[in-house]
Specification:
Layout: H1 18-22, H2 26-38, H3 50-57, H4 61-73, E1 77-80, E2 84-87, H5 92-116, H6 119-137, H7 141-159, H8 162-182, H9 194-203, H10 207-223
Antiparallel strand pairs: 1-2
Helix pairs in contact: 2-4, 3-4, 5-7, 5-8, 5-9, 5-10, 6-7, 6-9, 7-8, 9-10
């Protein structure tokens, strides 16, 4: 006589794990990596190793792949077949092209900002300039570079052209990489009073002066760079997220 088969015992559903409840999204990982790049905690050319990033953020490799895929899409990283994703390392010619593109776009953004800026937005710009001054007085070069880039994006948001804003976001991230590669030792990336002068021109509703000041500002930043081949440096991926 055959022994009747036992029905499998239904298991109670497991409570959600702490990891699943607190795990970062791929968008959050993207923002963390992007911040590490723009704040110069990760250098151009560094490989974004999936296994190591998965351990750093305590997430699956799938989420890391999604985040690095977005960085590649935004041209902040490049994907090399059979090797993986690497932070982009713009050449000197590409650096010149980035600044040429910014010189075409940002003077027009200034004209639009002059036309569209509200009193509240101008106040916000002045508050941002004060943050830059505080960072400069505190000798925080990474913070200065980040805040400087944010100022340009704030102006673009005020201008109100979404397509140009998206384009400038990409150019700004590439500019941060370029400064990381080609900045001269101790060279000023943004003259301390340039942004304040730009806000003055916006408040005065002087579109052509605002455009001319922005053009001069970008030319000054580019001229402060040494567009010669960079030297290698020893960075560890984990150190960027301590």
């Amino acid at each position: 006589m055959k022994t009747p088969l036992k029905r499998p015992v239904a298991l109670a559903p497991s409570p959600p794990s702490r990891r699943s409840a607190t795990s970062l999204s791929s968008d959050q990982i993207y923002e963390r990596i992007l911040a590490a790049i723009t704040e110069h905690r990760l250098p151009p050319g560094m490989q974004l190793v999936e296994d190591r990033l998965a351990r750093i953020f305590d997430v699956s490799r799938t989420k890391i792949r999604e985040a690095t895929g977005r960085l590649v899409h935004d041209r902040i990283a490049i994907n090399i077949p059979n090797r993986g994703a690497f932070i982009a390392s713009p050449t000197a010619d590409e650096a010149r092209e980035v600044f040429a593109a910014r010189r075409l776009i940002e003077p027009e953004l200034m004209r639009l900002a002059v036309r569209n800026a509200t009193a509240r937005q101008i106040t916000s710009l002045r508050a941002h300039v004060r943050k830059e001054t505080a960072a400069r007085n505190s000798s925080k070069p990474h913070a200065i570079i980040t805040l400087s880039g944010e100022f340009h994006l704030l102006v673009a948001e005020i201008a109100g052209n979404g397509f140009l804003l998206r384009t400038l976001r990409e150019l700004e991230s590439l500019t941060s990489l370029i400064i990381r590669l080609y900045d001269t030792a101790g060279g000023p990336n943004c003259p301390y009073d340039d942004h304040a002068g730009l806000v003055d021109a916006i408040e005065a509703r002087n579109a052509e002066r605002a455009a001319a000041l922005m053009l001069h500002h970008l030319e000054h930043i580019e001229s402060s760079l040494d567009l010669s081949p960079p030297t290698d440096s020893d960075f560890q991926l984990e150190d960027a997220f301590i």
